Every structure is written in C-alpha cells, then in structure tokens.
Amino acid sequence: MKIALLDALTLGDSDLSVFDTLGELTVYQTTDAQQTAKRLVGQEVIITNKVVITAQHMAENPQLKLICISATGTNNVDLEAAKKAGVEVKNVSGYSTESVSQATFSLLFQLLHQSRYYDQYIADKNGAAALYLLILNVLSLK
Hints:
Number of strands: 5
Radius of gyration: 24 Å
Distance between the termini: 60 Å
Shape: elongated
Helix content: 40-55%
C-alpha cells in the first residue's frame, strides 16, 4: 500500500515508524497547493492535517482509498466528492477532549477568582498584599 503524509511538520517529532508495517510511506514536511496534485499520484492513503484535498484531486486519483486527517476538523477535504468517489475520510475525533475540558475549566476559574488581576498585582511587586486579597476573595466564594 502506498501512503503519503503531506504535512509531517504539523505532527512535531512523532515516531512515524508505525506506518512501516502498513506499506510504503512517503513523508513530506510541508505541501503547498501547487504540489498537492503531484504528490497524490499513485497514493492509496493520504495523511494530512491542513492540506486541502479537492474533488478534482480525488477524480484524478481513482486508486485513492482513504484520507486520514490528523486533526479534528474535516473542512480541508471535499467530503461530498469523497463520498461519491468511494474514498473514506477519517479524522481524530476524540483528540484532546480532556485537555479542552481542562482548559475550559481553567479559564472559568481564572475569571471567577480574578487570578490574572492578582498575578499582575504580584508582578508589580505588591506580592504579600495581593496574596492576602486573593485569599480573602477565595474565602468569600465559599
């Protein structure tokens, strides 16, 4: 099976050796719009994060079976065209679910406790007074 990773740079220093057991992997650090068509030729599987895959790309590559999106969004692939061409499109639907929740609650607590205000207050060399006010604020919320 021929696999092309079109924008490996977006994956950081990920270990790509897992793909060796699946077939012949070609890795491109980045792919711009002018390079996409050429890089899809002969590939059965495409892995992308941001590279746009159009209806024309799929029509020109009937051997294409699967497009894997290494992100949660699917807006960079023409899903209607993929369906018509019989190309499966999969993304990482469960990606970062816990960290998104964690970040949301972190921001909520920051707003609720005004921690940014106190952080700046401490940075302005009023540390002891700011900590005292922060403790009072937290205790008043209970």
